[in-house]
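REQUEST ID: PR-0412
SUBMITTED BY: lab tech R.K.
PRIORITY: routine
TASK: structure prediction, single protein chain
INPUT:
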Amino acid sequence: MKHTMTVRLDLEHYAADFPVDQDSEWLALRFTSDKSMTWDEIRFCDPAGRQRFLYWDVHSPREALLHASPELTSELGVPGRIPAGTWRLESKLGKPRSFTLEWEYGSGAVPPSAPLPAANREFWTDGASPDGIHFALNLYDWQACKNEESRWYRGDFHTHTTLSDGRMTPEQATRLAEEVGLDFFAATEHNTMPSSWPVTPLLVIPGAELTSHSRGDWNAIGLTQSIDYWSNVDFDRLAGSEEAFTARMNRLREHVGRIGAIRSLNHPLIGRFAWKAPGTLLSGVDALEIWQTPVMRSHEIPNEGALLLWTLLWNAGYNICGIGGSDTHYHPHEPFHEGEDPQLIGDPATCVWAPRLTAAAIMQGVRDRHVYVTRGPRLETSVQVGDQSARIGDDLTDALRRTSSPVTVRLQASGMPGGIVHLIVNGETVSRRQVKEEATEFVDQFDWLAADYVWARYECRDGDGRLLAVTNPVFAGAKEKEIATWGELLERACRIDPGLRHYAESDELL
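STATUS: complete
OUTPUT:
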């Protein structure tokens, strides 16, 4: 039997209850609204208060099927039996609108009218819960191997589909990633995590973009369970203070770190989406998105600013990994701005050295900073200290204690004839050398035996100075952390380049 109700959602009435009168195997939901694309979030919770479905009001389908079986549960639904009692729908932002919900439930065969999920999916959870609130990705195999080779693997750590505010379905985004030659990508939908994904030869890593709607976003990459973001953030509708927001975000990042995910601050200087919580503890940041959506000309200065922030982090004693993200939202024929190239998954690509292509190995590669980011050039690197081999991103402190030899770094850059390779040591450019052929090798030696703390990285740029690729640093030694918060870091950057403050504080859509 179908049931229908219409409610008014706003700042005062942001939740509504609806009954399920009997324990069931399935619950079908369909809903409509008198407004579209509000960027609001609607979540459905069972009588125990456990989130069973989250809907983003942008391009997400306005329907879902929850079922005891993962095979019949919608991609953003949590599998499991449907308990009788009072269920609830909640609006995160409470944007005023009329909301109509139609629901039906039962056991046995699902009626033909129910919104069946896509076929041919990999299931990440059967609804198992570690604590009665979250769901665990107990079906996801972190050691499942997609390739047995030890090599650089090309990927993307920031992507979106119709499961949040992207225009491509998960199937379309996955096929495109295959076509452009990626080996892996992270599924980072806003404030939610899929319970399944289309079957693919690529490695897909579970994650989420924790989105504040006003103060910036950050990625949790490699999640093993869902995140109760709703209970850990001051929503705009609650008019939370900056201090309260920052405190909750610091606690949430601490929790995400404890459960083993990588915490990355996204597009830190890009206007409306810049990170605007100066009290953010840098100790809760594992990675920084140093390069995002490079096809957009308006992002050139903020992306260079992100590189400066990263440089200052390293100079301040933080050995944080630099990664890239396409933040792709659009089909490949849809540019964000007229006259620009379209966003494309894998632009830029984040390349991770791993002994094999598994989620666990890629995650460890990022933790070890065995990473470079590129728009095209392919880099091969080697690091030698005496008879000891290492990689870009490694800490050479112990190796240098066991030898009197200098550090030798070899970099081969291909796919950028005419470009310039910049060597950056402790934040200063010490050399600029041209790539004259299709592939050119550079060899650098560093006498770091007496250094307390030192680091070096490479940047590849075209003849006009535009970034083409950047490696993570190789380093030795350690220093006491000079700063503790994002605000202190930003102040240092703005003293060097005062123009960055506009991008850090603007509410403009760049």
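NOTES: Residues 232-239 have pLDDT under 50 and may be disordered.
REVIEWED BY: pending
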